[in-house]
Amino acid sequence: MTGAADAPGGPSAPPVQLKIPGDLSFADFKAMSARMEKVMDYHLARGNFIRQSMESLRSQFGFEGEGEAAGNVSLSGEIGKVVERQAVSRGIAMPEKSQEVKDWEAERQSEASVPPEGWDKSSLITLFLPGSQGTDDKQVEIWLDNRAFDKLGKMSADEVKAGLVDMLNGPDAAASQAAVDDGAFGAAMRADSEHHSEFQKSKARLGFFDPEQGTSAQPWLMIQSRSEPGYVQENAGKLVDTVMSILKEGAAGRTAG
Hints:
By secondary structure, this protein is α+β, with helices and mostly antiparallel strands. It has eight helices and six strands. Helix 1 packs across helix 2 (79-89) and helix 2 crosses helix 8 (229-252).
């Protein structure tokens, strides 16, 4: 005997391991690192896909060449997904999501912001014509009712062009303006008025309305501009052709990706 009792458990007992909340074991850290690597790889691939999709879109609107001075396009709302599906239908490969990426996104769904009133039902294609210096300079807006994508896409471009209504002049002006003010477009414009007052100050505005409801409800498609009214009047047909191609090809690529 040594005259002193061994500690409980004897000298060979391993030290007590305290688990501190939030601590990661080496195995946990490796798994997390591998997961984040897959997430980063996916987002790099997706960024490349978006770049190619937007290059294709710029070309469709007649914007060729490098740099914003050559013309640019901005997307807001569900039309972005349609453009992605169109890109897939044109052979641009959309990266696949691994289970790790799906899990990572699911964990962050609750963090997604809710669109302001009106924007949950509206989409906007903003064209910045060559030489534009940004907001409200050489700017043309194409508004779309998300709920009308399928119906509009089943029509011909000629039908839509023939049905365009001058929403600022003529017998339909008052009713069509009221339809915008009372609908999702009007709500979206008011929600964004602090940063985009030009939305409500258009000098040219053409719209295509539901053939059955007419101007009693907001248009399915609306082309407008404060800074480039002449461009809207002169190029409405070409713009309709492009939008209809996006909707039709986007529908064709719906099951892809």
